[in-house]
Design goal:
Helix content: over 70%
Number of domains: 2
Oligomer: single chain
Structural class: mainly alpha
Largest sheet: none
Number of strands: 0
Shape: globular
Strand content: under 5%
Distance between the termini: 39 Å
Radius of gyration: 28 Å
């Protein structure tokens, strides 16, 4: 157990006399907390999980990693807010980042602890009293929150003390405490709302989507906020009429009123709300939310809704299967290729690990496109409509970035935590495994390229008219050709048949760079020939034929070649 856990453990066990008078067995309490903190050190956080799977390395410093990540994030928030001139705006931005990041890291890294029902099977059968059990759970949550809040608030405290003096820390500390209580309330409300509208069995899946949304959000903040800080340096957020409805503004105004009291109704309201709302929300959590959440946890452990959930899953699978089978009938041949298509299609929809690694690419793709257009100053919708020089560049950027999601998916369709189940491929009477590979690649294209290409085509037609169709189709065919070539040389393993730990980062970078380089060369060629429509149409036909030939050649992969890749 690391030194920070030891310090926090001694801190929470300091009032042991009070615990004894409450009927708590202090020895049992210490043993439970010590075990839980050691398990926390070995439970990888959301950023370490990927490294652990790649390196097969046992995690023993997860707590230190989480604290370091919180420290860096807190320093970033404080630095960004310090660049602003107006005090209220500065602290509003800081507390906005603070609340958002705290909520995201608690959801990402503590959800597995919060909904863990194994305590009911491991601890309760032992001679441990209910009071000891409940207190151990509360203190464990308190320690975990402290390990995130303290390092995250430390850089802000230092910077604000330097800028505003020692009295700033006296005003800053209570605002951090109340903002933390308010964030915990938001998380509990989010959990209860999710469990109200869905089954407990789907709870983890929905939390996964929330984690994906937060990953996209922070990537967007990392890319966009530094570029936009110059525009907000003189902003005074307090002039907004509805700004009082924004919770981070309460804590900013509360800090301002404690640090330098003023005869302002707005600041007095902020100070009142910054204390009243978190305390009232804490009462709601203890009185109503916690009992309801514990009841839902019991449903997860007891499986009281298992039959209902199973019926819903079966109905959903039937509707999904009928769609995927119809699509497979259109673009695959009967036999191994169609089976590979349907298998990969369903696995991509069911695998939580696959979705956690691929779906964020949707947001990354949008953010990258926004950045590119952000850097193309002077670009207007009229430029795209007229298809002038800037408009053509913008159109080609959109087209040739439309397969970023597909590249990410192709990098994951061969990897799985349950790769040992792939024995079914090697025992099935399939003469050429390339047919299964071809079906898997077509399933990835159908899920992650065709919808994006369709949306891109519709958007371009609505902005530039039907005259953009030949160039749009040429770009889409080129993207398919690039994908087919990269898949031919790299994707030579059966779907979901390799462990996550052997993923080659060099091969992944090779795939990305090959797509970017070839795509850039084709984009430059298309830019030169953009206005010569007959040539574009001929090249589109040639590109489509070449794509078909590449995908058809993948079907000829032999068992000898595939087996050699598994032996490497």
């Amino acid at each position: 157990m690391n030194i920070f856990n030891k310090i926090l453990l001694k801190l929470v066990l300091f009032p042991s006399g009070l615990y004894t008078r409450m009927g708590v067995n202090v020895n049992h309490l210490k043993a439970i907390l010590t075990t839980k903190l050691m398990m926390d050190d070995r439970r990888p956080n959301s950023f370490q999980q990927m490294q652990q799977k790649r390196r097969k390395k046992t995690i023993s410093t997860a707590t230190l990693s989480t604290m370091l990540m919180a420290l860096i994030a807190g320093g970033l928030f404080a630095f960004i807010s310090a660049l602003l001139d107006n005090t209220l705006t500065k602290f509003t931005i800081y507390f906005s980042f603070y609340i958002t990041f705290l909520a995201s890291i608690l959801i990402a890294d503590f959800t597995s602890v919060l909904i863990d029902v194994r305590d009911s099977y491991i601890i309760l059968p032992k001679p441990v009293t209910d009071r000891t059990f409940v207190l151990s759970r509360l203190l464990h949550i308190f320690i975990h929150v402290c390990k995130i809040v303290l390092p995250m608030a430390l850089p802000g405290a230092v910077i604000f003390v330097i800028n505003y003096g020692a009295w700033a820390i006296a005003a800053f500390a209570p605002m951090v405490l109340t903002a933390t209580l308010f964030t915990i309330f938001l998380i509990n409300a989010c959990y209860i709302l999710i469990l109200k509208i869905t089954t407990p069995q789907k709870f983890q899946n929905i939390i996964s989507y929330i984690q994906i949304a937060f990953a996209i959000f922070f990537y967007a903040c990392y890319q966009l906020v530094p570029r936009m800080m110059g525009r907000f340096s003189g902003l005074d957020i307090s002039r907004g009429k509805a700004i009082i409805l924004l919770p981070p503004f309460w804590f900013a105004g509360g800090w301002q009123q404690i640090y330098s009291p003023a005869n302002s109704i707005q600041l007095w309201c902020c100070l009142l709300l910054s204390f009243a709302v978190p305390l009232f929300s804490l009462w709601l959590v203890i009185k109503y939310f916690a009992p309801a959440f514990n009841q839902k946890l019991a449903m997860i452990g007891g499986g009281t809704t298992e039959g209902t959930a199973l019926n819903k899953v079966v109905k959903k699978e039937k509707s999904t299967s009928s769609y995927s089978q119809r699509l497979a009938g259109l673009i695959t041949r009967h036999g191994a290729e169609r089976s590979g298509f349907i298998f990969t299609w369903k696995m991509m929809l069911r695998s939580r690990d696959f979705k956690m690694k691929v779906y964020p690419a949707i947001g990354y793709m949008i953010v990258i496109l926004v950045l590119m257009f952000f850097n193309m100053r002077g670009l207007t919708l009229n430029d795209i409509s007229l298809q002038d020089d800037k408009g053509r560049i913008a159109i080609l950027i959109v087209i040739y970035f439309s397969n970023l999601l597909l590249v990410s998916a192709l990098g994951q369709i061969t990897l799985s935590d349950k790769f040992k189940a792939a024995w079914v491929f090697f025992t099935a009477p399939v003469d050429v495994p390339g047919k299964i590979l071809s079906g898997a690649i077509k399933a990835a294209i159908s899920q992650f390229f065709f919808p994006v290409a369709a949306v891109t085509l519709i958007a371009l037609i609505s902005l530039a008219g039907i005259s953009v169709i030949p160039n749009a189709l040429f770009g889409i065919c080129n993207e398919l050709l690039i994908t087919g070539v990269s898949a031919y040389f790299i994707a030579d393993k059966l779907p979901f048949s390799s462990p996550q730990s052997i993923r080659s980062s060099s091969k992944g970078m090779l795939r990305v760079f090959s797509v970017m380089i070839i795509g850039s060369l084709l984009a430059v060629l298309q830019y030169i020939l953009y206005k010569i429509t007959p040539v574009i149409i001929i090249l589109t036909i040639l590109s489509a034929v070449a794509s078909w030939m590449v995908f058809d050649s993948i079907k000829k992969y032999t068992w000898k070649k595939v087996q050699r890749r598994y032996e490497e």
